[in-house]
Amino acid sequence: MTVLLLAEHDTAAIADATLRALAAARQIGSEVHVLVAGSGAGAVADAAARLDGVARVLLADSENYDQMLAEPVAALLASLADGYDAIVAASTAVGKSVMPRVAALLDVMQVSDVVAVDGPKTFKRPIYAGNAIQTVTSSDATIVATIRTAGFQAAGEGGSAVVEAVSGPEPAALSEFVENFTVTSDRPELTSARVVVSGGRALGSAEAFERLLTPLADALGAAIGASRAAVDAGYAPNTCQVGQTGKIVAPDLYIAAGISGAIQHLAGMKDAKVIVAINSDADAPIFQLADFGLVADIFTALPELTAALEARAR
Amino acid sequence: MKIIVPIKRVVDPSIRISVKADGSGVDTSNLKMSINPFDEVAVEEALRLREVGTASEIVVVSIGPAKAEETLRHALAMGPDRALHIETDEMPEPLGIAKLLRAVIADEAPDLVILGKQAIDDDSNQTGQMLAALLGWGQATFASKLGIEGGNAVVTREVDGGLQTIRVGLPAIVTTDLRLNTPRYASLPNIMKARKKPLDKRPLAAFGLDTRPRLTVLKTEAPVTRTAGVKLASVTELVERLGRAGII
C-alpha cells in the first residue's frame, strides 16, 4: 500500500495539520509519499523529506498552486494518482475543497473526516455532529480520504527521503485568486493548542470578548476559540469558531466561558482531556460534560480566574 | 440567469439523535425532519440574486423518499419558481448524488448552482466539489459572501486562516457557509401558493445511472460519552483543582 499525502504549507513550514495527517497516512499504508505544491516550496519539500515515515517527496514547483485553489490542485493529484492505493489530506479548508474533487475525477467515493484507521480500506468517521461514529469500508480501487487531525499525533523528524520534481496538467482557467484577509495572531494555533479558552454569546460584545478572554488566554498560553453564536454576533473572527462546521479541537484543557453548549459546539470540543465550564445558567448543557463546572457570572469569574493564574505563576 | 439549488431532507438540527442498539445505524424514525440548514441558506442566496435582478429563474432539486416533497414545498414557499423531485428510497452517496445532479444540469443548463457546504446528517462535505469536478466547472466552497460581476461569481470564502476572495467563471458551483445570510421565513400566503407551484417527479431509475454505494457501513456506534464532573463553588477552588490535576 502506497499513500500520497497532500501537504499544506506557507512556503516556510509544513502545517501542523499535515504532520498529524501523516500519522494517519502511515497507518493506512506502509509507504507514504508527500506532495508539496507551490512556487518556492523547495525548502518545504526538503523539510518534508526529513519527516519520520516519508519515503518520497513530490515537489510541484509552480505558481499554479500558490493559493491551493481546488481546480488545479485536484487536477495535479488526479494526474499523480496512478500507482497510489490511497490519496489523503488533512480535513482543513483546503483538504475539504480539493479532495472531493479528486475523488470525483477518479470516480471514487471519498471518506470524509477519518478519526481512526481500522485497516487499509476501513475507517471510523463521525456523523451527526459526532453523535454517532460509523465504521465504513470502501470498495473503490483508490482510497480518497480526509483526516480529522485532532486525534493524531504530529509526526517528527527522522527520515531522509528523496525529493522528485513533478508537474501537473496545464490548468483550465476556472477560478482565480483575488485576495486573502488573514487573521494573524501570536497565539498557539487553535487546532493544535494545548489549552483553548473559548467564549460564547454571553460575553455580549466584541469589546468584552477581547477584554475578558485575552488576558486569560495570555495567562494560560492558550489559543482563543468561540461558539458559532459569538462569531455570528461579530465578537470573534470566523477563524475562532469551534464546532461541527468550525474547527475541531482536542486540547489538554478547554475552558468554555459563557457557552451554553449546543450540540454543534460540543461536536468541536468534546474530545478535550479536561473541560471547564463557566456559565451563570446552572442548567446549561455544557455542564453535562464539563469535568469542572463553575456556576458564576463570567464578568467577575474570568478576571478573578486570570488574576489567580497570574498570581500562581509569580 | 438560472440558478439550481439542490436541497436535502435531514433530521432537524435541534434533535439529538440516538444510535440503534444493534449497531445498524441511527434511529431516524418519527423524528422531526427539516431542510438541511446550509441548503436553506443556499435557497435564500438564490432568492436575493433574483431580487436584485441578477437571477430570473430558481429551481430547487431534491433526491430522496416520497416525503422529500415536503422539504421541496418548504423551499418553494420561500420563493423559488419550481421544483424537481428525484424519487428513491435508497439514498445515494455524495458521488451518486453528484452524478444525478450532473444529469439534471445537462437538461436545465443553469448558470449557477448553489449548494449547502455539507448535510448535517452524514457531514460529508463533498457533493458540490464532486459536481464541479464532474462538470469541469470552477467551484467556490464555504461562501460567506457572493456577488455576480460580469460573467463571474466573486466569492468570499471562510478558510482556516481567515477569509479568501476568489473569482470563478460562470457557470460555477458555490457552496454555502452559514454566515452567507439569514434565511427568511415563509409567509402563510406563500406557503399556500407553494402548493400550486410546479413540482416535477422523476424516479431515480429513469436516469439510468449507477448510483450504488461504494462505501459499506459495517457498524454505527454511539461515541464515547463524557459524564458530568463536579460543580465547584469558587474560582479559588477551580484553580486549586486544576493545579492538583497537573493541568496548570
UniProtKB/TrEMBL annotation, chain A:
Q: Does the keyword Transport apply?
A: yes
Kindly give the Gene3D superfamilies that the UniProt entry links to this protein: HUPs (3.40.50.620), TPP-binding domain (3.40.50.1220)
Q: Which domain of life is it from?
A: Bacteria
Where is the Electron transfer flavoprotein alpha/beta-subunit N-terminal domain positioned along the sequence?
Answer: 3-181
Keywords of the record: Electron transport, FAD, Flavoprotein, Transport
Cofactor(s) needed: FAD
Per UniProt, the cofactor note for this protein states: Binds 1 FAD per dimer.
Task: Read off the InterPro entries from this record.
Answer: DHS-like_NAD/FAD-binding_dom (IPR029035), ETF_a/b_N (IPR014730), ETF_a/FixB (IPR001308), ETF_alpha_N (IPR033947), ETF_asu_C (IPR014731), ETF_asu_C_CS (IPR018206), Rossmann-like_a/b/a_fold (IPR014729)
Question: Binding of FAD: at which residues?
Answer: 201, 227-228, 241-245, 258-265, 279, 297-298
Q: Quick one: a GO biological-process term for this protein?
A: fatty acid beta-oxidation using acyl-CoA dehydrogenase
Asked if the Swiss-Prot or TrEMBL record annotates the protein with the keyword Transport, the reply is yes
The record ties this protein, via CDD domains, to:
ETF_alpha
| SMART domains, alphabetized | ETF (SM00893)
Which GO molecular function annotation, any one, does this entry have? electron transfer activity
Q: Which family does it belong to?
A: Belongs to the ETF alpha-subunit/FixB family.
Q: Which PANTHER family match?
A: ELECTRON TRANSFER FLAVOPROTEIN ALPHA (PTHR43153), ELECTRON TRANSFER FLAVOPROTEIN SUBUNIT ALPHA, MITOCHONDRIAL (PTHR43153:SF1)
Write down what this protein is called. Answer: Electron transfer flavoprotein subunit alpha
* Origin species: Devosia nanyangense
Automatic annotation (TrEMBL), chain B:
Q: Which residues form the Electron transfer flavoprotein alpha/beta-subunit N-terminal domain?
A: 23-211
Keywords, in A-Z order = Electron transport, Transport
Q: Which residues form a coiled coil?
A: none
One short Pfam name that applies is ETF
**Which GO biological process categories is it annotated with?**
carboxylic acid catabolic process
The residues the entry assigns to the signal sequence are none
Q: Which Gene3D superfamilies match?
A: HUPs (3.40.50.620)
Instruction: Name the SMART domains on file.
Output: ETF (SM00893)
Q: Which cofactor does it need?
A: AMP
Q: Which InterPro entries match?
A: ET-Flavoprotein_bsu_CS, ETF_a/b_N, ETF_b, ETF_beta_N, Rossmann-like_a/b/a_fold
Q: Name one GO molecular function term.
A: electron transfer activity
Highest taxon in the source lineage: Bacteria
Q: Which family does it belong to?
A: Belongs to the ETF beta-subunit/FixA family.
Function according to Swiss-Prot or TrEMBL: The electron transfer flavoprotein serves as a specific electron acceptor for other dehydrogenases. It transfers the electrons to the main respiratory chain via ETF-ubiquinone oxidoreductase (ETF dehydrogenase).
Known partners and oligomeric status: Heterodimer of an alpha and a beta subunit.
Protein name per Swiss-Prot or TrEMBL: Electron transfer flavoprotein subunit beta
Q: Which species?
A: Devosia nanyangense
**Which taxonomic lineage is given here?**
Bacteria, Pseudomonadati, Pseudomonadota, Alphaproteobacteria, Hyphomicrobiales
